[in-house]
Predict the 3D structure of the following.
Amino acid sequence: MPNETTLLIHEKLIAWQVACALLRLVCEARISDARLRDQAMRAAQSACLNIAEANGRFSLADRRRVFAIARGEATEAAGAVQIAAISGACTESAANEARRLGGRVAALLTGLIR
């Protein structure tokens, strides 16, 4: 991990850090359904990327718009893991953790949008 003086501006956001934890969880969930795994991965990656992009924007309206997209992607990623668990394609514990992390990312992003 870089020291505090070399962090990019998005790396300081707790929302970014939690979104990265959600992405790691999706990777570790080992979802056996390839389509669902791909959907969860793309959504989790997009949440992280949109947080980084939003924090690089200057216009407040533009930042809010991109943070809102990131919020939707994070909840989609969490939902995909939950659906995988319901379908028997991953563990219930992965789904519970995805629900927790997805909800936390969504709450943090809601604060940044306001």
Q: What stands out?
A: The two ends are 30 Å apart (CA to CA). The first helix runs from residue 14 to 28. Residues 9-113 form a domain with the de novo design (two linked rop proteins) fold (CATH 1.20.1440.60). The mean pLDDT is 94.
